[in-house]
Amino acid sequence: MSDFLSNFEKANKNAKRLSNKILIGGKLISPSTNNKINVINPSTGENIGEAPQCNKDEVNLAVKSSLNAFKEWKKVPARERGRLVELGARKLEQRRDEIETLLALDTGNALRTQAKPETSASIELTRMFAGLSGEIKGENYPPNIANTLHYTTRDPIGVVCAIVPWNAPLFLTVAKIAPAIVAGNTVVLKTAEQAPFCALLLAEIFQQELPPGVLNVISGYGEECGEPLLTHPDVRKITFTGSFNVGKIIAQKAAPKLCPVTLELGGKNPNIIMSDADLDIAIPGVIDGMRYTRQGQACTAGSRVYIQEKIYETVLDGVVDRLKNLKMGNALDENSDVGAIISEDQLGRTLHYMNIAKENSSTKVLHGGNQKKGGEYKEGFFYEPTLLSGVSVKSPVCQEEIFGPVACAIPFKSFDEVIESANDTPFGLSAVLWTQNLSRALQFVEEIDAGFVQVNQCVAPRANVSYGGLKMSGLGKEYAFDSMINHFTQSKTVLINRGSSNIDE
């Protein structure tokens, strides 16, 4: 049997096993609702299973399970909680092949270039948070009042609602549940309807080491499932990754009960190449930064490629040459560099913005610009990695997050000009500059409106790199120790009058 067929068989078997299941009280169960959401393999358009369309009943069951578990879990010493999460990470490592193949099937992200690295990064992130368990602590203060002991503690918040998207469902699930659980909270995870199985498998593996109810998993649409979860009085923390529009709704739902939220939202990120840049790293950096091998489906995608006029044509030629070498195909095929867009709806979004771009006579398609159909692409949702020029910086194509494999090349004259243009957006997630001028690099770091800034590299966020956006790109940070402390614990101030030591015996 070929590697491709073996991968497909393993992934498909897990998808069928997890179909129409939720995780409550430590067990995979079938929900009471009969409503289901079809889960589609993006590479073929075929149905691979169903996700339950949970409602208020399942939400209440999951929250109750979490709340009951929290009463005891918060008492477990932090190092012990970290030890159990580390054991979960070891099980993830043991089942790595199984996880990464299901991830590729679930998302359409290519196995070799995306699913395998995401699985590795997820294991690394889990281990990092597990290892930091002993650092969850408060502070001692010199007393302001005589004979008084003054200190703070860092205590768990309670039941955490975690909502993850479909583009990196494994890593983003770990980024939310690992710090929350290590910090002493319990979690209700709502998976993405389009890609529920890899997150559910991960939770099932974790559950083997955790007490029942510490981690519960449901699925469903916003109105029937998301809203009752967000507004549930026993949910005391919400962490969400997704679009700005949904993030705004979540903040509104959380406000009446003053529930703290962490929001990692969208971006329209600049990737700026100065004329003095080392093009040997900058040109492939455009490919990496745009996340073409994830079909552009990344919040950090550098979809606005600013190139100084002096090197504009040279850079474009170099990028196009590299794009020509990317192989698109079934996500489970180890030979594929680029997989499929997650769904027909998301493909339609890409087509919509391409139609806008093509309406302008000045637009040039330098590479790509076509939906792939038929033949080896069958009924999957494939769109070529696309690079455009001649698109106005005021066009929706340059202003709005497409979340597809479409980038715009924009020439500029001066550094001041490009900084002004790069900041002319409601988003502020990530930004990249390529230059060999140290002074200019430091000025860029100072002046750019973005929460995640890189110079002469364009790597994806990873373990122990604090990550989050400014402006409409979100609230709070993730992936690092500060996120665990700031977002999943609460501070308690303690004053103890120790009295006098002059006590008669």
Structural description of this entry:
- α3 (78-94) runs antiparallel to α5, α4 (96-107) runs antiparallel to α7 (197-207) and α5 (111-131) runs parallel beside α6.
- 40% of the residues lie in helices and 21% in strands.
- The strands form 7 sheets. The chain has a 7-stranded mixed sheet, sandwiched between helices. A 6-stranded mixed sheet has the order 9-8-7-10-11-23, with helices on both faces.
- It has 16 helices and 24 strands.
- It is of the alpha/beta class and 505 residues long.
- It is globular, with a radius of gyration of 24 Å.
- A hairpin with a 6-residue loop joins β5 and β6 (148-156).
- The protein has helices at 3-18, 56-73, 78-94, 96-107, 111-131, 169-182, 197-207, 222-231, 244-254, 279-290, 312-324, 344-359, 396-399, 415-422, 438-447, 481-488, and strands spanning 22-24, 27-29, 36-40, 47-52, 140-141, 148-156, 159-163, 186-190, 215-218, 235-241, 261-264, 270-273, 304-308, 364-367, 371-372, 382-383, 386-389, 406-412, 427-428, 430-434, 452-455, 470-471, 474-475, 489-497.
- It has 2 domains: 3-265 and 473-492, Aldehyde Dehydrogenase, Chain A, domain 1 (3-Layer(aba) Sandwich); 270-455, Aldehyde Dehydrogenase, Chain A, domain 2 (3-Layer(aba) Sandwich).
